[in-house]
Amino acid sequence: MPSHPLVRLAGCFATGALAAAVALIGLDQAAPLAFPLKVAWLWLGGNGAVALGFALPAIARF
């Protein structure tokens, strides 16, 4: 059964933010970042995953 689009959106965002958080831990240890940059990093990671989560299935149909 296909999931609701908002469930997919939330799942993609959470997965992308988690991946960005893991990368941010290593990056922050190498070169500490200001708090606004950390928030932007996580936000962009989540949004990138949402974009890929909706674009890749559409591309795969062609």
Distance between the ends: 22 Å
Anisotropy-based shape = elongated
Radius of gyration: 14 Å
Largest sheet: none
Verbal overview:
It is built from 2 helices and no strands. The model has no long low-confidence stretch (mean pLDDT 88). It has helices spanning 5-30, 35-60. By secondary structure, it is mainly alpha-helical. Helix 1 packs across helix 2 (35-60). The radius of gyration is 14 Å and the shape is elongated. The longest helix is centred in the first third of the chain and has 26 residues, at 5-30.
Summarize the structure.
This protein is an all-alpha fold and 62 residues long. Helix content is 84%, strand content 0%. α1 crosses α2 (35-60).
Brief descriptors of the model:
single chain, 2 helices, 62 residues
What topology does this entry show?
Layout: H1 5-30, H2 35-60
